[in-house]
Amino acid sequence: SMTDQGVIYTSPDLIQWTLLEGDEWNVGAEPIVGVFYNQKKECYTITLRPDWGVRKVGYVETKDWRTFSEYEDCLQTDSLDSPLSELYGMPAIEYHGYYIGFPVIYRGFKDDLITKFNGGTIESELAYSFDGRHWQRSVREPFITGLDEQNERVFGHKNNMVWVSDFLETDDGMLIYCSAAKNEHGTAFVTDGDGKICVFYMKKDRFVS
Q: What is the pTM of this model?
């Protein structure tokens, strides 16, 4: 929820939603937020940023969606990233005993005053975990991007921002649902009609290719 508190809504049919009063899991949560069930810890894990504008990722855990653990950091950019890169969020999934994260990297904006939020691209890389709490980043290359030639052929233009939203495992692979925008960060958020939904198909166990 884009509010000052991380609040919870429930629904019996995915159409009608009701706010759970008094249940908060974070203060100042921003997109991009992810949730997966941790089989090893027997709890739900929410991956999120710690507060509004703070660009690193951690997690909060809950077993009943009424009581929540304290926020813990688990991932941030480092010296292997391009200068001024920031971690925008990390949706994650449980995948056959492993945990796969999609760190959303914001980069490419100008190194000038008052330009941090204007310009720049968003792509998703890969991370992994054996317990759903301690994460390692994989190759520092875009795994989901709107800047490649295939995107340009499909849409007629490149998408400067693409971030992972949801997943659906199929018999022979996985569908990865993403939000995307043609314009760069900042401009895209105030441009009517710029947003779109993309679906990427990945063959089974192809996380490294």
A: 0.86
